[in-house]
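The authors assume throughout that readers already know how a fold can be written as discrete tokens. Each protein is reduced to its one-letter sequence and a matching series of backbone shape codes. I therefore recommend that a typical entry be quoted early in the introduction. For illustration, here is how one protein appears when written out as sequence plus structure tokens:
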Amino acid sequence: MYSSVLSQLLLLQSSLYLVSAAPAPLEPRQTPVAPASGFRGGPDLLGYSPGEVLTTENTHVAGFKLEPGQQQDANIGSYVDLTKNPKPQPIRGSKGGTDPGPYSGIYEPANSDKYAPPGTDHGSTINAEWPMGLSHAKLGLKGAGWSKQQNIEVMPAAKAMAGVMMRLEANGYRELHWHVAAEWALMLNGTARIQVRTKLPKCQLW
């Protein structure tokens, strides 16, 4: 008798679960409307239509010139100087195409091997350059100075290297710390006093 009662309870529990799991009926305003084409959704979800005008802008690039080395075979990898070209183009031999802009006027000429790379570049060529002018500055408290750094957060290739530019005002200080790799610094102006605690065996000065 116990097993019979248990089986009835289990059957009742499963039926309640099926009732509670059944989807609620859609409200009239939620009823999907199928257009004649069979597409479910509003007309704003439809894709490209031949009747739509995508753009009327003329993107033809005229009046540009190729610098020495750009007309050679791309695999030669000649140096290309774009610093004086008002309309630089990402072209190397038979590779590439025109770029109607807009141009930053800074990064394309300064990085010609990225903007118009040699044909020997394949796959994802890492970027091992980062201008400190784009790095976020950390401002020290009470006018102590500032620091800007570049690391893996802004330059994925910096897995084993990082750079910091820093200014400490008079009597400003920065806490002593260490890194996994060796560290060196170039002081352009001023003097510094360094104190080391002997209880930090991993701390090394270079």
Remarks:
- Residues 9-22, 28-35 have pLDDT under 50 and may be disordered.
- The CA atoms of residues 32 and 125 lie 48 Å apart.
